[in-house]
User: Fold these one by one.
Assistant:
Number 1:
Amino acid sequence: MRIFECSDSFLPIVDGVGRVVTTYSRMLAERGHEVYVICPMSDTGYRGNLPYEIVDFSSTVSMRRVPQYKAGVAGLDPHYMKRIEQITPDIIHVHSPGTAGFEGVRLAKKYGVPLIGTFHSKFYDDMYNMTGSRAIARVGASAIGEFFNGCDETWTVSRFAAKELESYGFRNAVRIVHNGTNARFSEPAPAAEVAEKLSLNKDPVLLFVGQIDRKKNIPLILEACALVKEKGKRFQMIFAGQGRDMERFREKAEQLGIGDVVCFTGHIADEHLLAGLYKRALLFLFPSLYDTAGLVVTEAASMGTPSLVVRSSAPAEFITNGETGLLCEENADSLAAAICRALDDPERIAQMGRQAQIQMPRPWETVIDEVEKLYDQIADERRTVGSRGFRRITDRVLDMVGDVKQ
């Protein structure tokens, strides 16, 4: 099967969507499919030995407040257009409603092939953070709802994500296709190597992995850690990742008097080192209300480390409180109390980690088995039908934008 995977975030961006698209593309190609990733052009470095093809288009516009993301119009890049016109897909899967997503729409309509859309992110939050306008964010969310209404099939990565999409005006049936992780997503580096490279001492490690961004609720972690330190508990708080708010959070840690126990490592590209860090941690802290799944929570579980998450969040959907992880309320007192209980009873936390390792990770092989079967089924059933619903989307989006201007 000839498959187009369309995403507005891809290598070298290391967010959750980019990682999912990378995994889909690699594993489907390794199973003999002809896979093409359509995305904005980025500096991906050396591309040798990839089992799939990247067909990228010029992207010169940086997104406000998130400059690592680029945007461009595929149809304005003549080199891209010449390349893509030589490839006829059997099915198209869009992973974002941005410029790459709309290019997937154009191609599905042109070739009359099925269009699948996966809703990964809380776009309302993204648009509000970028514009500061709730009116614009509402219009954008409605446009995204219409985008997914026009797909032949719409998938989400959790029940939480499905509810979020419904709030955007999505009216059709949705299929939940969970993300996966390997039973052990990478072989861990030895504990001594992890300690040496990251300057760890012998105190228990509390860990966060992800974008160092306010939307991940990192200030809540810092405030809770300050309360834990006030109670005389010994620990190290490690933030592994990169993001626009890193310096701001370093300053906040100093202001809270926890600069000596907080470390920001930056992005850890070495998966073996990252796996070793997961394994070394007593507890993984992930109080984000933004994420619609929380891939890092299952990665931590795969290394035998349980997570502490907010009760109302998407990652809480995958955790049994007190058995495979811990839940807390979204406030510093509740988060700090849960951390203190974990530090006081490490054996209980280790037992939760063992159960999390058994129960939580869903192998990517199983996920791709499901995806492959669904692709075959959808292509067979709708080969002559093509994509539906997009003929009026551009006009409707323009109408909504006009309403806001008025």
Number 2:
Amino acid sequence: MTIKYFKTNTYYVYLILLFNVSLALTYTAFGQAGLDSLDREASIYTIYNVEVDETSRNVTTARDRALSKGQRQALEGLFRRIILISDREKLPEFSDAEVTEFISGFEINNERRSTVRYIASLVVHFNRTKITEVLSDYEIPYAETLGTAVSVLPVLEEAGALRLWEKDNKWREAWENYDVINNLVPINTPVPTLKNRMYISALQAKSGDQRSIKSFIGENRLNDLIIATATIKKDVNNDQLQLNIHLKRNNPNLEEDNMSKDISVSVPTHNEMGEINDKALFEAGVDAASDWVDDLWKSKVLVNYGVASKIRASGYLNEVSDWLIIQKQLAKVNLVRNINLKSITINNVDLEIEFAGDEEQLALSLAQQGLTLEQGEIDNKWAIGLTGFAQSTGRN
């Protein structure tokens, strides 16, 4: 037996073992129980940083009230994350017992208490199956795919002056302090560096100066830039502060998909301390604007529970371990309901994917995990593959 022969046979033995392990992994990783694993739910069906603060006649009662309110607040946050703004009113007011049934567990952080007061921060995990079933009952589509990060340039127009990079731009400060961990689409706010100041000004941003905007996007390598121009108005008759916001999306890769939106929010002129309520006004504005950003993404990836499709796809394997990476990345895609491995060789894998939504939504969701899904123009056959991102993260 030559060394070459020995190595070749060893490789085939390894392939056979890998094939058998892969089959076992397929049924465990993609069975219904596997799809509801904590790893898959963590990115979508967990709500973080739920702050609770309750006072009552004793700390035990305060704690019970705080946990009950916090869990309800988390449920509202989850629905805010995965369904459209227009569909929220379709949901009923759930009882405390019903809210509890949706929850698979929760964690308590930063707990503080006195004899009558209870303060904590909660992380609440939800049961994916029960959530999607209730949405199906009310015929509400939902999104389970995290979006690509976008950047927001907050321009404040006040008393005839425009602010963007200035320190006293409270509108930008509200965006910088906004906790986006529970949003479907990650949002970041560019920092006021000298370079950024040189590339775009408040006036250029507000007026939609495309030369400056494109230069700013290119220099910062942004996927999506949303210019949020806010104007404060006082409603003296109703003792309200009003924030009028114009949102303009700028995407260098989707010129035809550029969109704009005008929204308005209002709060009482003064807070409980008698101070001007501008902080609450800006926070309400960020909430409303980020809702719109999330909805832009949701409209592309919304699915209906119980509606499933199947496609057959083949993939080329540079290494046998590529199949394990494909499995690992597929397991992160919530649209994928099941995988059937049809065949595997040294260089090729053939599989059937059962999924919710349509092919375009599936391809978009796979792309978020570093997988490509393309249909041949001639034979209409589907091909699945790995990007460099998936290969680097999958082997870690």
